[in-house]
Amino acid sequence: MTEIAKIRTFLIAVMITCLAASLMIFPKEALEASTRGLTMWWDVVFPSLLPFFIVSELLIGFGVVSLLGTFLEPLMRPIFRVPGVGGFVWAMGLASGYPAGAKLTARMRQEKKLTKIEAERLVSFTNSSNPLFIFGAIAVGFFQNAALGLLLALSHYLGNICVGILMRFHGSEEERFLRQQRKPQDRSLNHAMSIIYEERKKDGRPLGKLLGDAVQSSVRTLLMVGGFIILFSVLNRILTLIGFTDFLAVLFSIILSFFQLPNELSIPLISGLFEITLGAQLASQVTEATLFQQVVVTSFFLAFCGFSVQAQVASILAETDIRFKPFFVARIFHGFFAAIISVILWPYVYTENSSRGNISSVIPAFLSNGSSGLGTTLWHWLHMYGSLFTLIMLIIFIFLMAKRGLERAEP
């Protein structure tokens, strides 16, 4: 075992050295990729995730999550075999997107509201893309077709539900003893209100400090997320420049041919496995594939969520005893579930009047009056004002950190 660890350490050191050398060989391309990742984080990721993170921290601090958990227990426990608080994590993860589900699951584990096995089940199906990204960035931004958002969203979220049902069997043997000792919960309103009071009393922080801590914790997490987005944007570009992506494309073309998909989708698929945004952009530009084939591949790597997001999740879970392996396996299942569901739902969302190969012949069934809907409006709002919101919140974060530093420095 020690020899294996030594070999793994050596290989990692070699890969990091090669990455450093590549950055020196391709400085211009690395800078462009880094800027692209930073722009995505600054304009979209930060302003879209921060409000959800802050509100989540406040809800946890005031005990509202425990209240919701009491009433959601009859739904979450039989279907997914997780406590009722998992319903809150699921809803917030769906609304805010990656990696909110992982962050909230880790927080619930730290609060002892989940067992280790329950946390591993929960994180496997609560880490999903938000509707704004699916409808705004992918459907409208890349495919320029708002109706595709409905198909991608349905396949993505229904696939997540399938993963949750599948993962309910995870760790059954390990938690058998805990299940036998679980006590029935009192779900009366009076008991729920007493839970809120006890949770708030246990927290003890005044509103001002609770809000400040929520902002600081959320911004720290998003700074980490931004670092991973930039890193994998650069890594994806470097792998393309050195020809490693083309080498993998040969292998992936064999897999795609098995599913009767064109080889030209191999590069977008590989890029999407590393970073979703670039993969979706490349998939939308493959003229050799039909729109149906583009959607199937996009559904797969959107559900797989990319190594960039998985690295973010791994970093968050490392602060707890939650294992990363079940999450990674669940992402593979989610990818196949989403792709299969997109195939099943395709005839009910689109009608093809002529040949499969002509993308222009595909008529949206849910696009009315050319309207792009609320998702597109919010997406354009983010691009217009997202950077300003990010700047303001970072200034507030620096002010709070400076204030806390001065308080600690005082005798």
TrEMBL record:
The keyword Transmembrane helix applies. It holds the Pfam family Gate. The chain crosses the membrane at residues 7-26, 46-72, 79-98, 132-158, 238-258, 295-316, 328-349, 382-402. InterPro entries: Gate_dom (IPR011642), Spore_IM_YlbJ (IPR014226). Residues 44-141, 222-318 form the Nucleoside transporter/FeoB GTPase Gate domain. Keywords: Membrane, Transmembrane, Transmembrane helix. The keyword Transmembrane helix applies. This is BH2588 protein. It comes from Halalkalibacterium halodurans (strain ATCC BAA-125 / DSM 18197 / FERM 7344 / JCM 9153 / C-125).
